[in-house]
């Protein structure tokens, strides 16, 4: 549906209005994407809504935004860094687990929320028209807010260690593009997978439950809580079969300058992400309408 | 030749009543040997089938039909909320859906935020939004509440806001589903006027309503849907009349029921309930000015049965009146009996009546009843044209309509004179 012509202030709709067609197959992926631009302000709306709804009717309210990520990190630091004594290469274990978890949680959070997004916003989708693809993308805002808060906590921790250890555990500025690249990759890959899973989840809720187990297992396969050096060198290629390994390693290297950067894995990840994203867009635009009808 | 606004061709929408096979069932089906019994295909319901029409710009199209006819499905497809299963729609310009009043409004946000949100949904720019907010608020009459969260709004304010937002979008096509079902009479009137003006200004309007008076007043064309199919497409008068006729031929067959139910017992059965004109023809529609007969036939199967019948007529959701057979009759031999009840002219109002028939049967001091609840449905027309047309102005709107419209004896006479004192002489 086209933009309203602004000259219509005399009460008359503009005579030469744009023509549109409704057909069973719905719009093509490309048509939908062009429409996304018209409806771009909905990103802000759905993003805000998803964050607000999450903490409505809670006593602590936005405080949960900080408590939720910090609590598991504190537990991990205690168990892995303290009790089990997993060594962290060159930085305090708290920083080490924080850096890995932040980008991992960004990925898993984005994937989880985009998977649930169609189901959560069913009321809207059943009543109003807009390009549906905005929903899984915008709902990821919740995971992104979480990520920013973790970065904030990390900044505080860095300042703390600077004062106590007199060391700034920060990578040189030249590493920054790798950090940014890995964030973009984590979000895009999550969106690509989410475009597959969200219409499925609208129809069969099993998807969401299965996914939560998959993610738990996936986290263990990814060098988040342990450094890659814990794994013998000859098996590293197996680790890097997991696309998230390359992303997490690049983020660690980009922010703290720890461990090594695997450029090959990162480039393969870019290709894989594009593949997943494009196929996800194709699949999503093909089935979204039916999925919502049947949910 | 006016410009075409929207054209719908062979539109169909199919819903499955049972769930689609789960992925496991689909997988299992693939491995099943050919010839083995396959599970029954899911039951399909065509909410809309083979609907085609084209509208010119500025058409106010009335969409009528019984519940479940596919009216809302049609509008939902046009609003792109649900995709069609087959067919094609080609339209021009913007579409503003008003499918469920208040759908998409956020109770936690203020009126101003909601307006801005709604306009954003519809792809308007920020400058446009500010310009139109005043119009919306003025029409909805919520100036003082613009910064109040909607959850503190009364129902009426909510509904006014929703309508005002949709119409002030100045869409090329407005989809209005039962907008008159809520809101007070003055607001309904303003809605109708506004839709009328919009139509005149070139807006194409889909107007779904059960209010035939509003349809006839507002619409330039009407389509009748039934069971998902387009039954009739034409001028309002023809289509509305056809629909109202059809409504009771559908339900007048009420007497053709099974051998079970409350209307049957061992002693007897209510066989038929019919509406007849004074000269004995069966009719489906009656006029206020004519005398009518209700004809009830029943069988009495037990000798020595005492029978007494009661009839009640309901309209507008209440019992209009009840009438009972003045005295019992005793059945000596089994047989079929006919009751005729004369309904005088100038009694029934211009509305739809539902007739309920009950018969009290007494055998050896033991009472039982047989009854038929929706035995007959019919419509009565009051012929305003032959009467004083100027009264119509007063009658418009339901507050002047009752369930009976009896002819009473009126007497208007001068009671006493008033002495008019010229203004200059007043103290």
Describe the structure.
The complex is a heterodimer of chains A (295) and B (427). In chain A, helix 3 (63-83) packs across helix 7 (141-165), helix 4 (93-120) packs antiparallel against helix 9 and helix 11 packs across helix 12 (263-294). Helix content of chain A is 68%, strand content 1%. By secondary structure, chain A is mainly alpha-helical. Chain B is α/β, with parallel strands linked by helices and 427 residues long. Chain B has 9 helices and 18 strands. In chain B, strands 5-6-7-3-8-9 form a 6-stranded mixed β-sheet, with helices on both faces. In chain B, strands 11, 13, 14, 15, 17 and 18 form a 6-stranded mixed β-sheet that branches. In chain B, helix 6 links the parallel strand 6 and strand 7. The longest helix of chain B is centred in the middle third of the chain and has 17 residues, at 236-252. The chains are: A mainly alpha (295), B alpha/beta (427). Strand 1 of chain A pairs antiparallel with strand 4 of chain B.
What's this model, at a glance?
The complex is a heterodimer of chains A (295) and B (427). Chain A is mainly α.
Summarize the SSE layout with pairings:
The complex is a heterodimer of chains A (295) and B (427).
Chain A: E1 19-22, H1 29-38, H2 41-54, H3 63-83, H4 93-120, H5 122-125, H6 134-138, H7 141-165, H8 176-203, H9 206-221, H10 236-239, H11 243-255, H12 263-294
Chain B: E1 4-16, H1 23-31, E2 44-56, E3 60-64, H2 71-78, E4 86-92, E5 95-98, H3 111-121, H4 126-140, H5 155-168, E6 173-177, H6 185-200, E7 204-208, H7 212-218, E8 221-226, E9 229-234, H8 236-252, E10 268-277, E11 285-287, E12 292-300, E13 305-315, E14 318-324, E15 329-331, E16 335-343, E17 352-363, E18 366-381, H9 392-395
Helix pairs in contact in B: 3-4, 4-5
